[in-house]
Each structure stands twice: as structure tokens, then as C-alpha cells.
Amino acid sequence: MPRRGKKPTNIPLFTREARIKRQLREHLRKLGFTRKGSGHLQPPELTKECFRRMHQAQRAEKLTGLRTLVANSWPKLRRYFADGSEVNTDRVDARLELVASDTWQSDLFRLASLTWSVPVSQGYGRRMRYLVWDDSNGKLIGLMALGDPVFNLKVRDDWIGWTVEQRRQRLVNVLDAYVLGAVPPYNMLLGGKLVACLAGTSEVRDAFAAKFAKSRGLISKKRKRPSLCLVTTTSALGRSAVYNRLILNGRRFFESLGYTSGWGHFHIPDSLFASMREYLVTAEEAYANNHQYGDGPNWRLRAVRKVLSQIGMNPDLLRHGIAREVFACILAANAREVLQGLTIKPDYSDLPTVAKVSEWARERWLVPRADRRPEFRAWQRDALLHLLAEPRTVPALRRAAPGG
Fold first, then answer.
1. Nearest one of 202, 270, 238, 288 to 27, comparing CA atoms
2. Separation in Å, CA 58 to CA 62, 119, 379
3. Is 326 inside a domain boundary?
4. How far is residue 35's CA from residue 43's CA, in Å, rounded to a whole number?
5. pLDDT tens for residues 166-208?
6. Cα 270-70-366 angle, rounded to 5 deg
């Protein structure tokens, strides 16, 4: 990635344009996209398995880039992953650990996230990353990471009832869960549901307050006193089976707000985006670096759109056609009133603790699941090495060219 203000190697713009066009067409062809009559992309199928396969190229790219991390970290960190025989569902006791940068915990977070079938984002702006531990055996249950939400998300904004100005002033009270899930063997026990519910706990609210109470806005530079009222998340594979029906002790932890309209940049791999950014640097376009001013994921979307327009390709190639389900975890009972500015003080009177959620989830999901699916006990932690191995090939889904 080129440094701010420094141009990459002196390759003519028209050569870069041709290279980006060729790379993008080849990549979309490999993913199996075709073009509708409207010019929008059309995925080969609308199934979860298809969506997983469409992420394989990015996942393979990430695994290749982090193979040194895997090789160096696995021998030291493997003991934190459980064998199935080490999990006693009657005693599972979840605990959240906030992860600091450049620690063995951050290495463990990165290593565990590489087992996901969909590549994990690094998040944007404010970030809170958590390891979810089982204190009954000292093993890792899963991961949670919260970061700045996208500025424009219609179903969220409509549900809150925001005007543009209200959103600008109070989006600081919202975070997005860009990582939520369990690692084996806890994922076989519906541990992902437990991890998701932990987003709506008093410990997360308190950690947010401690970390960001005196923060200043990246753009406005004004001191803000945010209160975490809402955590959103978006399913990676269409309709979600994890976030639906997340009810414990009569409390709904996530509710569906609707679906996205199918725009995004997941189908633009990091290597191709790096080429696009180099193009913007060479062309002396401000979009090459303006993410440093708080634009986050919206910046990447706009940067890709800018490149597509500049090189004569249809910006509608960002409309991949995969609608994702959007969910909201309400931490403050009066979240909408706070976010609309109708009241100032959030009502956290009904917010549970991690210990209470762990107890409820153990009884509702983990113990019954272990009784029905005892095969989790045969899981061996070293099987994770298969998930961490670099794929040899990424097969194309269909050979129809999407064009430009």
C-alpha cells in the first residue's frame, strides 16, 4: 500500500486502467457473476454455500498473507482451543476479555478469526475486540469485535426514525458488530448464539463508556460523551440462522430490521483494491487517503466507485445483488428516543451481565444441544489446522463473463 503523499512506481495511468479492468473482469468471472439487462451484477445462486464459495478468493488471499502468523502462533496458542472432551456444557462460564493491540491475545484473535469461512474485516475507527473465554476450562469460546458503523444504512436509519442531521449527531452512540461467532467445538453447541447475546450486556456498555467517554469526533474534533445504545450487525450469508430467535429469559437480544439493497465491495479483493488505490494516488485523487479523516467503510465504497468511473467502467458493478439481513441489539430500553434526541439519559435498567447471559444460554442452548449432538466430544483442536491451511485452488463458479 503506498504511503500518503508518495506516488507508486511510474506506470502510466492508461496502463493501470487496463490492468484494473482486466483484473476485475477476471475476478468477477471466477466468482460466477453475470450481468442483468439493467447492467447490475447477478450472483450465480442465492444460497449460503454459493456465498461461502464467493468469499474463497479473499479468504485464500488473507491466509496467504498471514501464513507466517499461523506458523509462528499455532504452536504457542493451540492450547487455548478446546478438544471436545474438555468441554462440560453444564459448567460453561463465559467471560469477556478486551483485547489490546500487539499482545498474544491479539495474535489469538487474529488466528481464531482465520477459521471463519468469510474473511473477517479489521473494523474501522473506534474498535473494541473481545476474546470470549470459558472460565470452566480456560478455553476459547469465540470472538466479538465492535467498531464504527457505516454512515448510510437505510433499514437502520428508518427503524430509528433518523433525519440526516440526527444521524450525524448521534451515530456516535451506535457500534457495529463486525465479528461475532464461536470457534469449534463451541460452534457445534450453538455457542455462536451465546457470543452474539454478549453484545447486549452491561460489561460491553461499561467498556464503551470507559474507552470513549472523552473521545473527540474524527471530523468535527468536538468532544463527545457517547452512550452505547445500539449494536447492529449484518449477516454474511443472506438470511441468518444465528441472530434470529435470540431470546433468553424473555429478552430478545437481536431483532431483524430488514435487508440491505445488495450494494457493497466484498467482491473487490484487497489486492485489487490496493491497485485501485495506487491508481488514485497516481492520479492525485484525494480519495486515495481520505479514509484518515473518519470516512471508514463508506470511504472504500466511494474510492472504488471513483476508480470505476475514472476508468470507464459502470459504477453499478458495486451492486452485487446479495441482500444481507440487518439486526439490532438494543442496549438501552429507550434507544430510539435517545438516538432521536428526545431524551438524553439512556435506560439501562434491564441490561443483563455476562454471567447471567452465560447461565441462560447454557440452559437454553448448550446443554440441550450437547444431549442431542454428542459427536462434538470427538472434536480435536488440531483439526483447526485444516481450516487454517491455504486453499490450493479457488474454483470458478461459472464461466460467463460479466463485461464492463
1. 270
2. 6, 7, 27
3. yes
4. 9
5. 999 999 999 999 999 999 999 999 999 999 999 999 999 999 9
6. 95
Q: Binning pLDDT at 50, 70 and 90, where does residue 255 land?
A: very high
Distance CA 103, CA 97 (A): 12
58-86 per-residue burial string, b: 16 or more CB within 10 A, e: under 16:
bbbbbbeebeeebeebeeebeebbbbbeb
Specify the pTM.
0.79
For helices 270-282 and 13-31, angle between their N-to-C axes, nearest 10 degrees: 160
Task: Using CB atoms within 10 Å of the CB of residue 374, give its burial: 0 to 12 exposed, 13 to 18 middle, 19+ buried.
Answer: exposed
Mean pLDDT score, 343-372 = 97
Q: Domain for residue 252, yes or no?
A: yes
- CA dist 385 and 93 (Å) reads 26
The beta strands (E) that lie in 91-173 are given as: 94-98, 127-134, 139-147
How many Å apart are CA 295 and CA 226, to the nearest integer? 19
By CB neighbour count within 10 A (0-12 exposed, 13-18 middle, 19+ buried), where does 349 fall?
Answer: exposed
Residue 350 burial (C-beta neighbours within 10 Å; 0-12, 13-18, 19+): exposed
Q: Are 190 and 365 spatial neighbours (Cβ–Cβ below 8 Å)?
A: yes
The residue with greater pLDDT, 293 or 257, is 257
Distance CA 177, CA 145 (A): 6
Range of the domain at 138: 13-379
Measure the CA–CA gap between 226 and 212, rounded to whole angstroms.
7
Q: Rounded to an integer, what distance in angstroms lies between the CA atom of residue 286 and that of residue 224? A: 27
Residue 28's H or E segment, with its range, is: helix 13-31
Q: How many CB atoms lie within 10 A of CB 356?
A: 15
Whether 9 shows a pLDDT value over 60: the answer reads no
Query: Which of 238, 242, 272, 263 has its CA nearest to residue 254?
Result: 242
Beta bridge partners of 132: 96, 142
Provide the number of structural domains found in the chain.
Answer: 1
52, part of any domain: yes
Report which secondary-structure segment, H or E, holds 339. Answer: helix 335-340
388 in a structural domain: no
